[in-house]
Amino acid sequence: MTNMMSNMIPSGAGGTSVSADQLAVASGGYEFTGGFTDRTTGAAGSSDVGSNVLYTSAMVADQQWLRFGFDTTAQGTNDSPYWTEPAPADAAGVGLFGGSYMPGGVSSLFDFGFDTGASGYSAASTTGTKYNAATGSFDFTDCTAGDLALVRFDFNALPQVANTTLEVALIWQTRDSNDDPTFTFALTGEPIFFGTGTVGRTFLNRPMLSAYFASTEDVNARALLAIRADNPIQIQPLTTLCTIVR
User: Fold this and answer.
1) Residue ranges of E strands in the chain
2) Can you give the pLDDT at residue 115?
3) How confident is the model at residue 46, as a pLDDT?
4) How far apart are alpha carbons 93 and 107 in whole angstroms?
5) Do the beta carbons of residue 166 and residue 157 sit within 8 Å?
6) Where are the domains of the chain?
7) pTM for this structure?
């Protein structure tokens, strides 16, 4: 009885005590990565210089989303801890922080090797939400219904045309218990406007996007960050911070 009570954390008056294990699982947390396939310059967390990716005139005409995928090679190159205290955890396959600040009960927030090909998360170019093929995904499979994901996207934008409106989104695909896609849509944030005098200049952007998990299909969702614009524009994907709030 004594040992049991020592592992219980009392609540307020009239409340119910919870165990330390329950409290740990209930805690939120985050992970961070620069493991974008299209980032071939700089290192996550210590460099704000990236590699230019052109959102083309053809993409503009087709109103296509340009998704930024992840891959294992880019993650291994870009997620290099730049501090010594506390001693950094192994970042390989996890993210820059090596899982040190992960939410309770969650082992991964990124799947750098995800690639379903013909099963529904390659390219979509005919109707509905159009986007390019890309590998990798955010990984929420260790999360639970009721969690809230906050995803920050750090990127440089280099406008090519004045008065360009840029949209940022998570291309979100819910999936059932058999991992078959159910719905695919864009979770968008506030548009970013680049007016007169912005052409050829580099602007660092850090928009925050959110997604709630209302069901198991949301928890099993696959998602990637993406942009869309009404004029050609250069984008440098840098890093993303994924936070789970409970």
Assistant:
1) 8-9, 18-19, 29-33, 53-55, 66-68, 110-111, 137-139, 148-159, 164-175, 181-188, 192-194, 203-205, 208-212, 222-229, 233-245
2) 86
3) 87
4) 11
5) yes
6) 36-245
7) 0.88
